[in-house]
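Here's what a typical entry looks like (Phosphoglucosamine mutase):
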Amino acid sequence: MTLIKSISGIRGTIGGKVGDNLTPVDAVKFASAYGTFLKNGNSDKKFKVVVGRDARISGPMIHNLVVNTLIGLGIDVIDLGLSTTPTVEVAVPLEKADGGIILTASHNPKQWNALKLLNEKGEFLSGADGAKILEIAEAEAFDFSEVDDLGEITINDAYMDIHIDEVLDLPLVDAEAVAKRKFKVVVDGVNSSGGIVIPNLLEQMGVEVVKLYCEPNGHFPHNPEPLKEHLGDICKLVVEEKADFGIVVDPDVDRLAFISNDGEMFGEEYTLVAVADYVLSKTPGNTVSNMSSSRALRDITEKHSGNYQASAVGEVNVVELMKKTNAIIGGEGNGGIIYPELHYGRDSLVGVALFLTHLAALDMTVAELRASYPQYYMSKNKIELTPQIDVDAILEAMTEKYKTENISTIDGVKIDFAENWVHLRKSNTEPIIRIYTEAKTQQEADHLALRIIEEIKAVAGL
C-alpha cells in the first residue's frame, strides 16, 4: 500500500493506515491544505472550486470527503460529479472558479485514487505552489469556517455535454465532413467516464459507435493503462466489426490511443503526431512534447515549416514551454493531446475530434495513415542500482562521455544522435535510472539501450 505526495497532488491506495495510504483522513488533510492555500489568509473573498471525479469504486467516498472539507473551509463548490480530467479543466475558467480538484488516479489500477490540483486557469499547479500545499499539509495549518460562513454546493452534471459543445465549436473540427464519411468506431471506455463522453461526442459527429467496457462502474476489465498488452479485446473487436478504427482512453480521459482498422496499435506516440499533422496543415506553427516522446513529432513539425522543442517530462513542463514558444499544439507521447485553442491540458475529446476531421479529408485507412508517418521504435528499460551509488555522478559521467553530441540536461540526460536518441532519467524515490531509446528499427532501439546499460554499469563499477 502506498501514499505518494508530490507537487502535482496526492496519490495513493485506498485503505490501510493514515499517512501510509490514501485514507479518509489523508483525503481530508490534503483537501484542507489545498483550500487553505487558495484562501491564503483572505477571509473577505468568497472562493469557489470545481470538483469532479472518474468512475473508480472509491470515487464517491473520496469525492464526499473532499467536497465537504472545502465547504468546511467556507469555499463554495461546483460539483460536476462523474466527469473527466479535461472536463474539469474546461469548467474552471468557465465557472470563473479559483481552482479545481480532479479525483482520479488516471491510468493506475482500481485500488488507487488521487487528488489532482488545478489553478484558476484550469491548469496544473506550478511546482512552487505544489510545494506550498505540501508544507501546509505537513503543518496542518488549517483554519475552518464558523457555521454562518460555510461554503455551499452547486451540482452541475451538464459539463461533459458542455465540454463536447466546446470541442465541436472549434474551427478545425468539422462534424459535417466526418458525418458524411459514415465512420464506424469501437470505443473502450475501461468502465469509467470515457465510456459516456467519448461515445456521445462520436454520435454527435455522425459516427456509428460500438461500445466496449463503457459502463461507468469503476470495475476496470483490464489494466487501465492504454498499452498494447492490455488491449487484446478491442484489437480483436475492431477487426470483427470491420470498424474504421478503435478508440481507447484511460479512466480520466486525458490519454488517447487508437487501434488501426487491421487491429494493430496505431501507437500512443503517434496519436499526437497524427493530430499535429492535421492542425499544422491548417494553422502552421510550433510544437512541443516532452523529452521522452517520439522524434516523429519533430519531423512532422519541420515538414510544415514549424519549430519543435522538447520540455522536461511532466504536463506542467510541456504547457510552460508551449506558452513560451507559442506552440500551436503539443502534448506527451503517452497519447496526451494539448490544444491551446480550447485549453492547456491533455484532452482526449479534442484529440478524437481533430483526428476524425483529419481522417475525413483523406482517402486512406487508419493503417495507411499510420504507415505514412516517419517510422520510429522505442525501447523502455531501467537499471536498478544500490543505494550507495551516486546516481547524479553517473549521469554527469555519461554527459561527459557524450559531450560532443547534442545533449540536454534539463531533465536527466538526453543525448540526440543523428539517427537515434537516448534519455536517462533518475527516479526521485529509489536508486533507479530509467533508460528510454528510440531508433528507426526495434532492434536498433533495443541494441542502443543495452549498450547504454553496459556503459552505466561500467561507470558505476558493477
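Residues 293 and 333 are 5 Å apart (CA to CA).

More examples are in the samples folder.
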